[in-house]
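Progress note, sequence design subtask.
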């Protein structure tokens, strides 16, 4: 049965094992921090499966596990920050769709990657304690994150930087970020469906085969979150964002 399923996905057993390992890694990070699955998984997955398969598949997992994480920690979700940033995010996603045809991808990804890398590196190495961002910054951060989510699926680091500067409690940061990821993921799901990206049934076959591995990664991340001190969780967030920034810079230069 496994062989027949693999035939539908055009993957060998070794390739499938590699994809499964990537999924476990990506959703361990997601379970720990509430974001980072796409930025961790996509650059690695696209070495094995087509981009048009990897991105819609990760989107399905983000919706399922993001909803689980959000519901499980709904008492920690900061609705005030969501209400503040979501309108700007949606406006940014609309602008991103309008710019999608014309936007030069590589320069935008380079600028985003450099910003994320420098800000996160500074926060990890030099920042001591919590420094609050002005709530009015929700508008530019929301617009930028929404546009990048629409165009490239890379808005997560922008949301995380803003929320990390607004929410002192790591549990609130994790829960609120995950819900924001779900909101944008549902919007992208509608757009992807309208664009016909889910016509390929191999996406659903591969997703069904990989769901257990996504859950394993998620549960590992949740387990780690309960055992790591809050200050260390914040440092993990910045470290993940540094990796994300490097990944964006690489993607902007090598494609």
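Output:
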């Amino acid at each position: 049965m496994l062989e027949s399923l693999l035939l539908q996905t055009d993957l060998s057993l070794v390739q499938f094992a590699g994809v499964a390992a990537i999924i476990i890694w990506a959703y361990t990070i997601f379970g720990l921090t509430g974001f980072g699955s796409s930025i961790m998984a996509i650059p690695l997955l696209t070495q094995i499966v087509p981009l048009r398969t990897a991105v819609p598949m990760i989107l399905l997992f983000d919706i399922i596990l993001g909803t689980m994480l959000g519901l499980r920690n709904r008492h920690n979700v900061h609705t005030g920050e969501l209400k503040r940033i979501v309108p700007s995010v949606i406006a940014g996603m609309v602008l991103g769709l309008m710019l999608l045809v014309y936007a030069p991808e590589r320069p935008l990804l380079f600028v985003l990657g450099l910003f994320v890398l420098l800000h996160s590196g500074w926060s990890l190495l030099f920042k001591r304690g919590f420094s609050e961002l002005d709530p009015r910054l929700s508008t530019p951060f929301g617009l930028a994150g929404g546009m990048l989510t629409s165009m490239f699926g890379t808005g997560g680091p922008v949301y995380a930087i803003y929320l990390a500067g607004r929410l002192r409690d790591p549990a609130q940061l994790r829960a609120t970020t995950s819900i924001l990821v779900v909101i944008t993921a549902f919007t992208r799901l509608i757009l992807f469906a309208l664009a016909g990206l889910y016509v390929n049934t191999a996406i659903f076959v591969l997703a069904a085969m990989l769901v257990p591995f996504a859950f394993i990664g998620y549960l590992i991340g949740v387990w780690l979150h309960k055992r790591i001190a809050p200050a260390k969780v914040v440092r993990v967030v910045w470290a993940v964002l540094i990796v994300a920034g490097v990944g964006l810079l690489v993607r902007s230069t090598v494609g």
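DSSP finds eleven helices and no strands in the chain. Work on this subtask will continue into the next period as scheduled.
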